[in-house]
Amino acid sequence: MTTEQIAKAEKMNGARMFLECLKQEGVDTIFGYPGGVILHIYDELYSCDYIKHYLVRHEQAAVHAAEGYARVTGKPGVVLVTSGPGACNTVTGIANAYYDSYPLVVFTGQVDSKLIGNDAFQEADIVGITRTCCKHNYLVKNIGDLPRVIKESFHIAKTGKPGPVVVSLPKDVLTAKMDFEYPDKISLPGYNPTYEGHPIQCRRALKLLCEAQRPVIISGGGVIHSEASAEITELARKLNIPIATTLMGIGTYPQDDELSLGMLGMHGNYWANLAVSNCDVLFAVGTRFNDRITGYLKSFCKNAKVIHVDIDPCSISKNVHVDIPVVGDAKNVINLMLKEYSTEKYSYNEAMRRVWIQEILAWKEKRALRAIENGKMSPQTVIEHIYQKTKDKDAIIATEVGQHQMWTAQLYKFTKPRQLITSGGLGTMGFGFPAAMGAQIAAPDRLVFNIAGDGSIQMNIQELMTCVDYKIPVKIAVINNGYLGMVRQWQEKLFDKHYSQTHITSPDYVKLAEAYGILGIRITEESQIDEALDKAINYDGPVIMDFVVEPFEMVYPWVLAGKPLNEVILSNNAPEFRMGD
Amino acid sequence: MKHTISVLVKNEPGILSCVCDLFSSRGFNIESLTVASTIDNVFSRITIVTTGDDVVIEQICKQLNRLINTIKVVELPKSADKCIDRELILCKVTAKDDARSEILRISEIFGAKIIDVSPDIYTLEYSGDNRQVMALIALLKPLGIKEIVRSGMVAITRENQFINLHK
Question: What is the pTM of this model?
């Protein structure tokens, strides 16, 4: 008998069944932390040879690591934790994956179903707690439901607009016994994501784009989920349309290309924001028009016709008025448009397009971000050096949240999707390091950097030991300016330099590295950067680099919250606002 | 502007919480909400009366649709020739002396039933559309309403329009 047949023939307890279900879903990696009510699963894991479990040091990090894994592989990340505090610690991670739409299945233990509601030890209503921050959740009340629930969870997590699914597993469900049979069909009558864009809408969109005089494309995170970056690149090049990306869409179009505008939004490129402000047709794909990219909503693209492609109908016309909505999967929609374009029924005015592109190039030329040369080590210089050292190495770059994140998004010229791992929607400090860990596990042969701030790195620094245990060679570059830089930047501009609670101290990272038995390097001068990076890249194991940088650098360009996209502050010394050009 | 939304959902634990959490987390209003199972008890039908402009109502319907366990979301037409709505009320009114006959008269005009009688109190049962219910309440109020329970609105489309699992 094959293992599958044996599995079918004998009665199985819920814990074993759980692992069988994961096997059926092709899961070979899980991130977790054991505890009281989930022990039956850990007991089965003890002798399980097809699943590698990574023991983290905090449940939040398990979820971030699983998201890092999901971001690199495109497959759902899987988390296993206990009830109560274990489950509650996952909430930030779950919310993070929800706002950036990455697939996760998070299994949390639960007290015996007879005790639910009795305020039992380590009981928490995780289904209630996570209801508004996950795509769907389940409390399994009966072992008979377990295989179906797991099958549905993976299906929901990875289809449509991906997202996290939470499954709460009461202890008695794990100990009950039943014949195991994994369902091969799913019946979810209320869940039918639309994948195919409506052909008429696609044709209308294409026609409008061809007729446009000053079109712009915005490529969002949805393009990564739908694996549509080749398609959107082809469309932009065929129709000769400049293309900006959101923070989540970075890498969907090569940033070293002439048509690339780079990132738009609050800290986006000046020319990208100006192009979007002055366009007559906006083609937005897989973005939900977050306030960080639109600025003051009423003036966002106010003279433009907007085409919006998204798999989630809720995203369309939620923030920005849309003229041509297309509900569907980005890859399918763009492919349909490309196919339609190849019929040669459509054409655009090349001369007019050239004028528009020249106009943008002139803005770009005038306002290009230039490296600051003042003899001191600026954070931008460090990130520029990291880029130069890693650009030919197909590196994965994970960031935390704050100034270093924006500088990375601006200065690192990402050329591929799934290369930048960053928390966009929720903006979770402490995300990057565990996410980098998960990414490294997903791609053991690639170089993985975690560009961190001195504030963020201290939020999940305990995971250093996880890296040591499993030999996960993540290279951490702490951009150490002694402040919660982004908050301090707001205080400097908007709160009369009242640096309230934003000065933050750090441990001696070199000694800390020593305590963990890894390599620590302190860099205080620009001349030491390259040597340190070479040493870190060539070191076989995790590394912490402590870049002690200029403390008062600010992230520019900067569109203040609630201001229109074309009201940009360009530098400390520049006039307050630059309207237009 | 009031809107009535009919939602067919899978009859699973927590579905009502999902719907309510959606309204509270996104800042939508609920004027009234009723829920009970359909003829097939695998499904429940929720009728929600809410307020908002067209953009808000569109977003509410889309968000409701996005819940995994919602099968169908329909904004019901406002005109009375396309849709019928009713609300049930139970109402205790002070019934002393002359008021007793006045309550009886009003009940007769509205077609309300007196379902419980005591020396001081009449309890009325009445169902009607929102306008009728409000009119009855307005007439009974001066007589002294001691307690009132309203079911919230339920509504159904006329003739050959159905909100079922299958079209």
Answer: 0.94
Which CATH code of 3.40.50.970, 1.10.10.10, 3.30.420.40, 3.30.420.10 fits the domain covering A3-179?
Answer: 3.40.50.970
Question: Cβ B10–A314 below 8 Å, yes or no?
Answer: no
**CATH match for A199-367 among 3.40.50.1220, 3.40.20.10, 3.40.50.300, 3.40.30.10:** 3.40.50.1220
**Pairing between strand A396-399 and A448-453?**
parallel
Shared fold status for A199-367 and A379-552: yes
Kindly state the tokens that stand for A539.
């070191």
Q: State yes or no: cis peptide before A557, omega within 30 of 0.
A: yes
* CATH class label, B83-155: alpha beta
A156 contacts in B (CB within 8 Å)? Answer: 68
List A53's β-bridge partners, or say none: A30
Successive 10-residue mean pLDDT values, chain A, 581 residues:
59 96 97 97 96 98 98 98 98 98 98 94 96 96 97 98 98 96 94 95 97 97 97 97 97 92 94 94 96 91 95 93 96 97 93 95 80 77 96 97 96 95 97 98 98 97 98 98 96 94 97 98 96 98 97 92 89 62 47
Closest CA to A435 of A36, A72, A183: A72
Range A379-552 has CATH code 1.20.1260.10: no
Annotated active-site residue in A121, A177, A258, A471: A121
How close, in Å, is residue A8 to chain B by CA atoms? 29
HEC sequence for A36-69: HHHHHHHHHHCCCCCCEEEECCCHHHHHHHHHHH
